[in-house]
Design goal:
alpha+beta; 3-stranded antiparallel β-sheet; 7 strands; globular
Length: 218
């Protein structure tokens, strides 16, 4: 089974301004959001899409099928793909996410910094996703996933699900978390890996504490 490809203009990824203020998601960011909900609506069916990666491996090298992307030297090769396929086949559909501007702004703050510094990871100058969300007036109850080097929305989501080289498969588990209700996404250039994409997810729209569970009537 082959997924339809997203054909995007070359400048789509370069839409994050220095202020990291975004009025609306770019076409690429909206594409990642749509792909994320495509996966959550039916993880078992989405597992079949990951089969597209198997023939692209030369040993542990994932060869790009698009001239705009770079080849990626993986740590586990096709074994991580097969594991993801097995895991997703067991998953039930999840609630689709709603777009959150506050989460997207905090994600864009991170893109703005790393697009200049070339750093990778969740922390910049000691500030993590929770601190960035609080600086935006929200709360720290957020979950962040980041990809580097992918130029298509499906490539972003697939990388997170395969989670090559991450022993606990934390990114995959994050995308499968049923309590997530909102997501904000920001993507942009990266001086080392060409592109990066940050996704913040939360049970609430701005990372504030989730409401307490309802008590059953006596």
């Amino acid at each position: 089974m082959t997924k339809p490809r997203f054909l995007l203009a070359a400048g789509v990824l370069l839409t994050i301004g220095a202020t990291a203020a975004i009025a609306a998601p770019s076409r690429f960011e909206q594409g990642v959001f749509t792909e994320l909900n495509r996966f959550r609506s039916d993880p078992a069916a989405y597992a079949e899409y990951l089969r597209d990666y198997r023939p692209r491996f030369e040993g542990k090298l994932l060869v790009s099928d698009d001239d705009s992307e770079i080849d990626i030297m993986t740590r586990e090769g096709v074994a991580a793909v097969d594991e993801a396929i097995r895991d997703l086949r067991r998953e039930k559909p999840l609630t689709e996410l709603e777009w959150s501007d506050p989460l997207a702004r905090a994600a864009a703050d991170h893109v703005a910094v790393q697009s200049r510094s070339g750093a990778v990871g969740h922390y910049t100058k000691g500030s993590g996703p929770g601190e960035r969300m609080k600086a935006r007036g929200g709360g720290p109850y957020v979950n962040e996933v980041i990809t580097y080097g992918h130029h298509t929305p499906e490539g972003v989501v697939d990388q997170l699900l395969i989670d090559d080289g991450v022993p606990d498969r934390g990114h995959r588990h994050s995308l499968l978390r049923p309590t997530h209700r909102y997501a904000g996404i920001a993507c942009g250039r990266h001086p080392v890996h060409r592109t990066m994409c940050v996704t913040l997810m939360s049970e609430t729209r701005d990372g504030s504490p989730p409401p307490p569970p309802r008590r059953k009537a006596p």
